[in-house]
Amino acid sequence: MRTSVYVDGFNLYFGAVRDTPRKWLDIPAMCRMLLPEHEIVRIRYFTAIVSARESGDQSPVNQSMYLRALRTCPILTVHLGHFLTHVKRLPLVKPIGDQAFAKVLKTEEKGSDVNLASYLLRDGFRDEYEAAVLITNDSDLLEPVKIVKHELARTVGILCPHKHPSKQLLAHADFMKQIRRGVLDLCQYPPVLTDSKGSFHKPEGW
User: How much is the pTM?
Assistant: First the structure.
């Protein structure tokens, strides 16, 4: 079955690998392990470029190395959204004297879920897959999942990176598999990879 995989990068990161030694995750290898009966023809990875929050923050460099690792797979493409930072006035849980509100600096990821939904539908309408598998637990993607399942009559699967799968997504998926620790342990890139630019290393602490 021709299968395209759509990866919600931040949902995968926060649900399965954050604060673990499993961040150097070989997503294509994981997909092959969890979907052995599928012919994976495309993997689309959706994320946004992070910025350093303080001096010495290596997050942007680490993310850059990881995206470089992902791009060593010829069937994987990276699709970038962006972050929007703005000041927001929010109520305090417990007012301090006459102060009931505080101004906070809020950073929000924009575009990734819309991009994922757009490509999921685009590829489906162009008959580029027989099955679509989403790596996410975000119920905001319910409507495009329903369209693919019920209007395009394609198989829809969920690889869930979170402990408790979304009931909304489960109701319309043909199958769901949990991304468990053992699979993550087995699907790590080697410490050193090579691409057209040369060799590069797994980030320190990953």
Answer: 0.87
